[in-house]
């Protein structure tokens, strides 16, 4: 029997990989897309014929109700968000509306229209913020450090609450940073690989960055969308950390990226206070034991392979 899935945020990095995965598994895939002056379908251009797009917005309850009425999904993946932490200080209200309340609206649409559907909520390691223990696991207390982190904590608890209040199948994936050649250009990994490729091709002379000592647990987005799907195949809903269990600094990422094209980062990187954040999350490191033991998830792409994959892709683009 063919299953039907609705993905909010299908035009984003994760949405595009998840859509590919679900198509491979034989799903009917529906994606929610918002109206923009120019459609942002670059990441899903190659599968546009295989998926169905429904217009809607996480700030509009009617459009979400309508979307679930149209596709009657068995699985709903709520990946849509204002997902850039930096922007959450300049647009805190919009971030709260979309990233926080938006998740509640998705839960409401499912509760009212298709209560048997399983819901995946894209929760984030940013909820741990000023970390209360290392490594961070499912029971580590939250201490968000940005309006984005606050909004994700709201969405996390809304998901738990709908599970407990209405017996809905609603799971949180607490995912640590995951990257790919499809990563948005303002996130530090892609900003670095794009910048290095530009410098290597003679199009730029410097790369301006913020805190080089920030530590992140970085994995490959293609591996992480598999965990999302696995979570919804379990007997019951639950919350899981997905991470590699390895932390690296922004500086290490920069070093490997420049050395891939035979350059020394110290000759090109300029630290610019403009890219420092009002409050920082300095050391994120996840413990994925529960996801590994419950459904056998494992990381396939290593940190070094990830950096190299992203550099190769950006070099191709500029060549
Ligand atoms: P992206 O920023 O690449 O994608 C975000 C998606 O949300 C886009 O499709 C965007 O659409 C959509 N969107 C934004 N605002 C709205 C709105 N008002 N209504 C409907 N759709 C909207 O994020 P990622 O793919 O990297 O991340 C996916 C999810 O996982 C996000 O919720 C993110 O916060 C979360 N997350 C990500 C992690 C990561 O490392 N990547 C780690 C942990 C959590 P458009 O194309 O129109 O802008
Ligand atoms: P993050 O990702 O905030 O972890 O959120 P980002 O790549 O933006 O920052 C990672 C770290 O790098 C430092 N940094 C810089 N960051 C950016 N963007 N630009 C710079 O020039 C720069 N220089 C240093 C930052 O200070 C930070 O410490 C991502 C998003 O995908 C969220 O949606 C998701 O929830 C979390 O990962 C887990």
Keywords:
EC 4.2.1.47, binds guanosine-5'-diphosphate-rhamnose, single chain, 319 residues, seven-stranded parallel sheet, GDP_Man_deHydtase, binds NADPH dihydro-nicotinamide-adenine-dinucleotide phosphate, Rossmann fold, NAD(P)-bd_dom_sf, GDP-mannose 4,6-dehydratase activity, GDP-mannose 4,6-dehydratase, 2 domains
Task: List strands and helices in order, with pairings.
Blueprint: E1 4-8, H1 13-24, E2 28-33, E3 52-55, H2 61-71, E4 75-78, H3 87-90, H4 92-113, E5 118-124, H5 147-166, E6 170-175, E7 178-179, H6 188-200, E8 207-209, E9 215-216, E10 219-220, H7 221-232, E11 239-242, E12 248-249, H8 250-260, E13 269-271, H9 289-295, H10 303-318
Parallel strand pairs: 1-2, 1-4, 2-3, 4-5, 5-6, 6-11, 7-10, 8-13
Antiparallel strand pairs: 9-12
Helix pairs in contact: 1-7, 2-4, 4-5, 6-8, 6-10, 8-10
Bound molecules: NADPH dihydro-nicotinamide-adenine-dinucleotide phosphate and guanosine-5'-diphosphate-rhamnose.
Domain NAD(P)-binding: 6-310
Organism: Methanogenium marinum
EC number: 4.2.1.47
How would you describe what is shown here?
There is one protein chain. This protein is of the alpha/beta class. It has two domains: 4-178 and 218-242, 3-Layer(aba) Sandwich (Rossmann fold); 184-217 and 246-284 and 301-318, UDP-galactose 4-epimerase, domain 1. It has ten helices and 13 strands. The chain has helices at 13-24, 61-71, 87-90, 92-113, 147-166, 188-200, 221-232, 250-260, 289-295, 303-318; strands at 4-8, 28-33, 52-55, 75-78, 118-124, 170-175, 178-179, 207-209, 215-216, 219-220, 239-242, 248-249, 269-271. It is globular, with a radius of gyration of 19 Å. NADPH dihydro-nicotinamide-adenine-dinucleotide phosphate binds next to helix 1 and strand 5. Belongs to the NAD(P)-dependent epimerase/dehydratase family. GDP-mannose 4,6-dehydratase subfamily. InterPro entries: GDP_Man_deHydtase, NAD(P)-bd_dom, NAD(P)-bd_dom_sf. Catalyzes the conversion of GDP-D-mannose to GDP-4-dehydro-6-deoxy-D-mannose.
């Amino acid at each position: 029997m063919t299953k039907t899935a609705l993905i909010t945020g299908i035009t984003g990095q994760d949405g595009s990989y998840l859509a590919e995965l679900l198509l491979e598994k034989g799903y009917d895939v529906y994606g929610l897309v918002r109206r923009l002056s120019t459609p942002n379908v670059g990441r899903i251009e190659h599968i546009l014929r295989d998926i169905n797009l429904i217009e809607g917005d996480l700030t509009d309850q009617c459009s979400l109700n309508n979307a679930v009425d149209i596709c009657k999904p068995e699985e709903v993946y709520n990946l849509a968000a204002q997902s850039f932490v930096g922007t959450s200080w300049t647009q805190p209200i919009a971030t709260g509306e979309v990233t926080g309340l938006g998740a509640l609206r998705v839960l409401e649409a499912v509760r009212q229209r298709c209560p048997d559907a399983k819901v995946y909520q894209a929760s984030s390691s940013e909820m741990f913020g000023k970390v209360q223990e290392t490594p961070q696991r499912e029971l580590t207390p939250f201490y968000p450090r940005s309006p984005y982190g606050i909004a994700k904590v709201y969405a996390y608890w809304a998901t738990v609450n709908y599970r407990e209040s209405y017996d809905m199948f609603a799971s949180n994936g607490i995912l640590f940073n995951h990257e790919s050649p499809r990563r948005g250009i303002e996130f530090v990994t892609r900003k670095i690989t794009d910048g290095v490729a530009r410098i290597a091709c003679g199009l730029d002379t410097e790369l301006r960055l913020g805190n080089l000592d920030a530590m992140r647990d970085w994995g490959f987005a293609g591996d992480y969308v598999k965990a999302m799907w696995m979570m919804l195949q379990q007997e019951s809903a639950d919350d899981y950390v997905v991470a590699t269990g390895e932390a690296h600094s922004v500086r290490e990422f920069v070093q490997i990226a420049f050395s891939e094209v035979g350059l020394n980062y110290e000759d090109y990187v300029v630290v610019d206070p403009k890219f420092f954040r009002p409050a920082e999350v300095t050391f994120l490191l996840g413990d994925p034991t529960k996801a590994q033991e419950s459904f056998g998830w494992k990381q396939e792409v290593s940190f070094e392979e990830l950096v190299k994959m992203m550099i190769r892709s950006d070099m191709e683009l500029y060549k």
